[in-house]
Design a protein that fits this description.
Mean pLDDT: 94
Strand order of the largest sheet: 1-10-14-11
CATH architecture of the largest domain: Alpha-Beta Complex
Helix content: 25-40%
Structural class: alpha+beta
Number of strands: 18
Largest sheet: 4 strands, mixed
Distance between the termini: 42 Å
Shape: globular
Number of domains: 2
Length: 306
């Protein structure tokens, strides 16, 4: 296997734990990482996975990691057989499993690595607007890091049963003390120093908004990440998204080309255009609070109306 290293950023429900538990790659950590002048290391030593609808077929690494020494939270189980029903959400949609990182067969112990080759922002786009994968410029990477967009989805927060757009600066607004631009500049500096590429991956909806579209196929997303790792997306043809400005690959191994361009997956292109404009405006409205203290280049990476 190749030795490239990726660092995922994303809010709850975007797929960090699922996608990092990859049978083809070593897992350094699920959460809580430090990036120093020597590389990446993990300080948590465990994983905290969503357990709703968990199955051995869909997520075998996580399913098999839940053995003695794991802790299950809010799940329902048969009191006689003690078998867990991961599809039962009668207590809450937010069922969870905690387990030591050693329970993942291909975890890397000690949990240290070199410098990331790829920075991957994960978002669950409930609007069905963002592409499955986009290449970001350094300014776009800073803008989207500072924006921290996803959608609150069922199972991630109490009382949320319908997805809604949300923004959390640097994907962790509750934990930051400086202006988000400070953290974005630190990230950009690290990326420049170590030649890391930036990508935005939508693990949310395709083919329409919530209630119409379907969740992006997990095998497709895994294929996209494989293509990022092995360099297959480095030189493919791209098209520029007219509103968000991303360079969007038009082909990817194991992923149908029509899935890669979101507008092509909607039955009503005009409805897509309206939805994209709506999301773009939400981005711009959110970023107003950060404009003071941000460079013109980063402000200019905002999505625009056509």
């Amino acid at each position: 296997p190749d030795e490239s290293l990726s660092l995922f950023f994303g809010l709850s429900g975007t797929g960090k734990t699922t996608l990092s538990a990859d049978p083809r790659r070593a897992l350094i950590g699920d959460d809580e990482h430090c990036w120093t002048d020597k590389g990446i290391f993990n300080i948590e030593g465990g994983c905290y996975a969503k357990a709703i609808d968990l199955s051995a077929e869909k997520e075998p690494e996580i399913y098999n990691a839940i053995t003695f020494g794991s802790v299950l939270e809010n799940v329902v189980f048969d009191p006689v057989t003690r078998e867990v029903d991961y599809s039962d959400t009668s207590i809450t949609q937010n069922t969870r499993a905690s387990y030591p990182i050693e329970h993942i067969a291909n975890s890397k112990i000690p949990a240290v690595g070199g410098h990331p080759d790829h920075i991957i922002f994960l978002t669950y786009d409930a609007f069905g607007v963002l592409p499955p994968v986009s290449k970001l410029t350094p300014a776009q990477a800073m803008y989207h890091f500072m924006s921290g967009y996803t959608a609150k989805v069922a199972g991630t927060e109490v009382g949320v049963t319908e997805p809604e757009a949300t923004f959390s600066a640097c994907f962790g607004a509750a934990f930051i003390v400086w202006h988000p631009a400070k953290y974005a500049e630190l990230l950009a500096e690290k990326m420049r120093t170590h030649n890391a590429k930036a990508w935005l991956i939508n693990t949310g909806l395709t083919g329409g908004p919530y209630g119409v579209g379907e969740r992006m196929s997990l095998p497709y997303t895994r294929s996209i990440i494989d293509a990022i790792h092995d360099g297959a997306l480095n030189d493919v043809d791209t098209v520029r998204d007219p509103i968000f400005g991303f360079e969007v690959p038009t082909s990817c191994p194991e992923v149908p080309s029509e899935v890669l361009i979101p507008r092509d997956t909607w039955s009503d292109p005009a409805a897509y255009d309206a939805q994209a404009a709506k999301l773009a405006q939400l981005f711009r409205d959110n970023f107003v609070q950060f404009e003071e203290g941000s460079s013109d280049e980063v402000i200019g990476a905002a999505p625009h109306s056509e």
